[in-house]
Amino acid sequence: MIPYIANTPEDIKEMLRVIGVGRIDDLFRDIQPAYAPKAFNLPPGRSELEVTAWIHRLASKNASHLIPFIGGGYYDHYVPAAVTALVSRGEFYTAYTPYQPECSQGTLQALYEFQSAICALTGMEAANASLYDGGTALYEAAMMAIRITGRRKIIMDGGVSPIYRKIVKTYTSNLHFEFAETPVVHGQSNRQEIYKILDKDTAAVILQNPNFFGAIDDHADIIAKAHQTGALAVESVYPISLGLLKTPGEMGADIVTGEGQSLGLPLNFGGPYLGFMAARREFIRKMPGRIVGETVDQKGRRAFVNTLQAREQHIRREKAASNICTNVSLCALQAVIYMCLLGKEGFKELAQLNLDKAEFARRQIEQIEGVEVKRSSPTFNEFTVYLPQDASEVVEKMIAKGFAAGFPLGRYYKGMERYMIVAVTEKRTRQEILDYARCLREVLCR
Amino acid sequence: MPLIFEKSVPGRRGLKNPASDADAAASIPQKYRRAKACPLPEVTELDIVRHFTALSQKNFSVDTNFYPLGSCTMKYNPKFTEEAARMPGFSGLHPLLPQLRQGEKLTQGALEVLYEMEKFLCEITGMDAFTMQPLAGAHGELTGVMMMAAYHKARGNKKKYVIVPDSAHGTNPATVAIAGYEMVAVASDERGVMDIGELSRKINAETAGLMLTCPDTHGIFNSDVDKIAGMIHAVDGIMYCDGANLNAVLGRFRPGDAGFDVMHVNLHKTFATPHGGGGPGAGPVGVKEKLVPYLPISRVIKRSDGTLALNYDYPESIGYIASFYGNFAIILRAYAYILLLGKEGLREAANQAVLNANYLKERLKERFDLAYDRPCMHEVVFSASRQAKRGVHALDIAKFLIDKGIHPPTIYFPLTVKEAMMIEPTETESKETLDLFVHVLFEADDLSQRNPAYFKDLPQSTPITRPDEAKAARDINTNYFKA
Question: What is the CB-side half-sphere exposure of residue A414 using CA atoms within 13 A?
Answer without folding.
Answer: 1
